[in-house]
Amino acid sequence: MIIKPRIRGFVCITAHPQGCEAKVRQEIKVALAAKKDGGPKKVLVIGSSTGYGLSTRIASAFSHDADTLGIFFERPSQKGKPASAGWYNSVAFENAAHEAGLYAKSINGDAFSDEIKAQTIKTIKADLGQIDLVVYSLASPRRTDPKTGESYRSVLKPIGESFTNRTLDTDKNEVNEVTIEAAEGDDVAHTVKVMGGEDWELWMRALDEAGVLAPGAKSVAYSYIGPKLTWPVYTNGTIGQAKKDVERAAAAITTKHACAAYVAVNKAVVTQASSAIPVVPLYISILFKIMKAKGTHEDCIEQMVRLLNERLYGDDLQLDAAGRIRVDDWEMAPEVQQAVADIWPAITSDTLYAQSDYAGYQSNFLNLFGFGLPGVDYEEDVEVEIDLPSHG
Ligand code: NAD
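^ thats the input. predicted complex w/ nicotinamide-adenine-dinucleotide below
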């Protein structure tokens, strides 16, 4: 079929298999150009199909020749409809990894469940023996607790009082104001349950008890801090509480299991998860313009190459006072933040394209779903039903 983007708010409900492949190949090129010895060799990536998890998988495989096992929750093609972007990304990744002679398998299912953890351990035992890096990169709006069967939803809300600020209506390409009501009831507890550290701990306990963590294994989960202007809805909001819990979990995992667990604070980038957060897309558009002009702009793959090569497997983790790895350092540079703060109050719908890199934001967003990639013929009839090579 001929596949066109069908955008609904902050998601695109279609994805292009060849476009996703082109995007994955672009990232592989970046990773190959940063080949380095002394990195991870057998890597489990939980949340490996899009965004930061996919890029960590690509950086592990193509900068470090690592074997990778990826876990994700994606939609294969059904009834002639395109699969989700993460599915096509994973197909493209596996094909490229196999071409390069690397082991690459994927498990599609709910990472929060006991079944997927057990299936993962079985696969590691059969194929890899032990793993030396566990990457935890889930972003999910809901989680069912495997012990109680109870389901929780995460929300993106400020705590204490409502928050009003400027935002970007990406449907209308307009800058306007948004008010987000304060969290109430169980909002904070439920968001921590979904996006906090509990599931990461469950994974690490299960892997350790099964004896599949190699001596000296490392683990990393991702977080975000960002500028003061997004703190009410992010760092000081419900999601920020969940991220604090991820930091608690890192310390607990390091104490309880034979594994050094870290939180890496990453830069703001366009992903399916970040485009859903109010206020953030406008901030990202302004940030990109400033960082591109300074020559410090990075996307997921450049961030993850730097995380592995220079921090996790580099000479110096450069931990901050709270013990976190900071690859958001270039984003948080005072002159970058000052430049964003100068533009923030002045930007309007009329100056959106001049004062920010909204064009770059839009193109990044389309790229997430395999659209707008050079060298792809979008008028061509393409096969949508494509199996994961490792499932064949
Ligand atoms: P993303 O939406 O691109 O990726 C989420 C991944 O989680 C996908 O692989 C998806 O399949 C998987 N997933 C979701 N629910 C699942 C489930 N139940 N079972 C198995 N897999 C599941 O998100 P992202 O932006 O790359 O976020 C990953 C991490 O990075 C998050 O912790 C996020 O907070 C953090 N982070 C993101 C940004 C940013 O700007 N996007 C910045 C810093 C940190």
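The longest strand covers residues 213-223.
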